[in-house]
Write a structure and sequence with these properties.
Elements lengths: L4 H5 L6 H10 L5 E4 L12 E6 L4 H14 L7 E4 L2 E4 L1 E3 L2 E2 L7 E2 L4 H13 L5 E10 L23 H11 L3 E5 L3 E2 H7 L5 H23 L7 H10 L1 H14 L3 H15 L5 H18 L2 E5 L1 H7 L4 E6 L5 H12 L6 E5 L8 H6 L2 E4 L7 H16 L4 E2 L18 H12 L5 E10 L5 H8 L9 H6 L10 E6 L3 E2 H8 L17 H17 L3 E2 L1 H9 L6 E3 H17 L7 E2 L4 H10 L4 E3 L6 E3 L2 H13 L5 H8 L6 E3 H19 L5 H17 L3 E4 L4 E4 L5 H30 L6 H19 L9 H13 L3 E3 L5 E3 L2 H8 L6 H10 L31 H10 L1
Parallel strand pairs: 1-9, 2-5, 2-8, 11-17, 12-15, 12-16, 13-14, 13-15, 19-21
Antiparallel strand pairs: 3-4, 6-7, 8-9, 8-10, 16-17, 16-18, 20-23, 22-23, 24-26, 25-26, 27-28
Helix pairs in contact: 2-3, 4-7, 8-10, 8-15, 9-10, 9-15, 10-15, 11-13, 15-16, 19-20, 21-22, 21-23, 21-24, 22-23, 25-27, 25-28, 26-27, 26-30, 28-29, 28-31, 28-32, 29-30
Length: 866
Amino acid sequence: MPMTPDQRVHRARSPWWFNLLGKLLEPWVRIKREPAEPATLLAGQTAVCYAIERDGVSDALILERACREAGLPSPMQILNLPGRRRRSVFSLSRRDGWLFGRTDARGPKEPIGQLIQALEDAPERDIQVVPVSIYVGRAPNRESGWFSVLFAENWIVVGRFRRMIALLLNGRDTVVHFSAPVSLRSVMTESNGLTPERLTRKIARVLRTHFRRIRAAVVGPDLSHRRTVVDAVLNAEPVRAAIASTATKENIPLAKAQRRARDFALEIAADYSHPVVRSMSFLLSNFWNKLYDGIAMHHFDKARAAAPGHEVVYVPCHRSHADYLLLSYQLHYSGVVSPHIAAGVNLNLPGIGPILRRGGAFFLRRSFKGNAMYSVVFNEYLAQLVDRGVPLEYFIEGGRSRTGRLLAPRAGMLVMTVRAFLRAPRRPVLFQPVYIGYEKLMEGKSYAGELSGKAKEKESLLGLIRGLKVLRQRYGHVTINFGEPIALTPMLEVASPDWRDVTGDADAKPEWLNRVVDDLADRIQININRAADVNPINLLALALLATPKHAMAESDLLAQLELTKAMLIELPYSDRVTVTSMNPAGIIAYGEQMGWIRRVRHPLGDVLVAEGEQAVLLSYFRNNVLHLNASAAWVATCFLNNRRMSRSSVLRLGRIIYPFIQGELFLPWDGEGFAQQVQDTIDFFVRRGILESTGDGRLLERGPGQDDGAYQLRVIARSMLQAFERYYIAIAALVKNGPHTMSSAELENACTLTAQRLSLLNELSAPEFFDKALFRGFIQKLREARIVWTDEEGKLDFDAVLEDMVRDARVILAREVRHSILKITPGDKGDRDLDARPPVDPDGSSAGDSLHDRHVANEQTRHAKH
């Protein structure tokens, strides 16, 4: 950018010593500009004056070099001010004296006053003030020395010696952040009526606030010592009231109740330390190198663009103990402040807990029941964090998923966050869903064991030491995808336009609060799934686990992988889903390299197989992306036991089953949206020649059983078949026993036992098949749809439509599967045939097996052609 006329008239060379210092400093400093082309921020030929946060020769040298490299006017140029000569830069603070001077916060008043006076003397002129933030060593990378983290950028105002050390150690990681310029003339016009002195103070205050906000975003929040935060919690009115109530109720001295509250606060509170965070980042970079082959992030730029000005709450899926470490590390490494993380108190282990606490972890108990004071203290602590603008991270699933699916959300932390915002809505809250995808899990074997009935092993220091053996293995790649953020305020506006009427009340519990929180929890889970990453292991699991022996001929596996990838790309689930770039052959080779599959050589063609424990563990990775396959699996399932079906039958039955699939997999569509997705999927299968459309598109037909297309449909269908079998187990058990005979808990237990038995008989390698939580969720969906309800005695009654759903199952499930389930399912009414009457289409024709008998002549003609 060329010099402005004001700066060209009175150009002055920098002092010789300034240029010399610049030459000496240049080899030690590598500058990253944000934005990369700051010249685009400036306005025309208006004079430029830079504002920096701290006074110092090093900052002036760095600024001068950054401006020179970006083609901006030099901060050392002289501004043409009437009666004065001053350079084009000033700082918000300055130090009196050369070696031991103190910081003087009055620094900006003189230069700002001079600029204002110059504009008053020349009404036709303007000056654009550009705030520039300079950070030396914000986040030393894995090549940095351990000592470097101690001299990285922080909130402390350092002396010249410490700044020199920081430049020598971390100068190659220097960030110069140019903000949008502020027209001084516009500020004066908007502040008409203020005296020059008050206007000077106002501009200095605005700049100071701006620099604090930028520093908080880049370096992290300026947190007081933990004792200060704890004192603020204990002095809050709700906590004082809880202390008094406890003292009265338990008849104990007030001082004892206060000590108990303080103990609770100290047990909960983080003790955030910037040096510890940087040290942990340094250590973790080496740790990740030993464990993983790479960590990829997608859509982070969108997340970073949405964050400024918001209280950001990161809500990732929870699949491993590595989740929170990975996310915090990647955020810190990418220039965003690490969040405070809600961690279970079970992780507050000797030696480990203090480190996690200084890294930003705050601890909570699994249950607050029976301890009102603890609940009040924790709520107040969270409110303090939200009020201070500290970014947060927590897992709304409540625990790690043992199946690979998203778990039903537990809304406790969401309720507390929303209520904290309602109490003091100073900064809008933004929930940032995050999907974390792995190719191998450190906890995989323990998950499979727990689902098979083994007791969950409690966290302990000894267990942690034993777990260090995981460092001997490699775990492939990790992907972190940022989903679409969710703003809280618009949701509150929809729920209640008068929501601001309850703000400021710490005890407010409006009747619409639970509805907002439930909707928020579902949207978070949906947006996590909409940001899924499909890696090679996910694709192999989808294909191989859909075969009886978890084996496929290499040619068939190549074709299936190609079909699945094409379907994911041509029918995108959302614009944030990412799919591996590997081709089918590369995916197979990678699966062999990772040890997930084994190649069996054969003269007629090699076979790829997932054996034993590997097949069980692969079910986890299939479940990660099962939701992406839902519409295709439904269409394919309709043709497992039918050669032909009408398009209307596929859509009608899909609308019936969709609410249950949606609840289990957190799918994003409403009923009509799912129907459209099914239509698009059918059209895709028709384009690929897997289905044939006849009768003006009303009828659909697959090839004979030995046809390649029919085989590919069977593979796709079986990825979801176990879910449909679970649904059938639940409704068959209820109908078989009759109304008013089973409670929800009894039905849940009967379903779990039936599924376990069926799994043993059929050697299913999917422990989530008999996961009690999935049956519980299905029963809850039946209740929400008013298909099932509870009578006065706590027993379940049901609508007649439930028997129709049992009969509809014959469209999907083979006769032997239905009979096996009915034979195993415990019941009081005998083994009556619950699906004696076939399901019927709206046009009066059979929707199930009888479709084989329709248009027989046409079918025979087609077979003859083949």
